[in-house]
Amino acid sequence: MTDPTETPAQAKRRRLINLGEAIALAALIISALGLWNSWSKRDEKPAVVVEQTRSIPLALRGRVEDDGKVLAISPVEAGHALESLTLTAPGKPPVELGSEPRLSASSVEGLISADRNEGDGSLQITLDARYIETGIERRGNGRYRLEYRWVGGGLFEGRSLRLTRLTRN
Questions:
Q1: 110-154: pLDDT as tens digits
Q2: How many domains are there within the chain?
C-alpha cells in the first residue's frame, strides 16, 4: 500500500529498487541453472574425436630416364613409401627391384619372348609391393602394362630395347 505522506519521487525510487531486485533475482536463477547443468555433466567422460584415415590403394607410375634405358617406378601418393617391389611376367622368374625401384631395359629383355624383337610392343606384368602408409606396413599388387620399343640396328650397333611407358590395367 502506498503511504499518503510519500512524495512521488520516493514512490519512483521504491519502484526502481524493486525492478533492480527482480533483475538480480533473475540473474541468480540463471547462474544457478548454469551451475547445475555443468555439475550434472561432470560425470560424463569427454568425447575423444579421432579422425580415422582411410587406406589409399597403392598405385605406381613409371618415369622414363636415360632415353628409355631405365624406368624409375614410384608411388603416385606421396604418403606411400616403398619397401620392396617385385616384378613378375607370365612364365618368367620374378625380378626384385628393391625399395627405390629402377627397372633397366636390359633386365626386361629377358622377359620378352625371343621372337619379339622389332618395333613397338608391350608386356603384361604384375607388380607386388610392400609399402608403408601412415606408419603401417601394407602389401599391394596390381597388373600393369610395360610398353617398349626396339631401336638401333645400324651399321656398328645392335638393336637395343627402350622402355617407353608403364600404365595400369
A1: 888 765 667 788 889 999 999 988 888 999 889 999 999 988 766
A2: 2
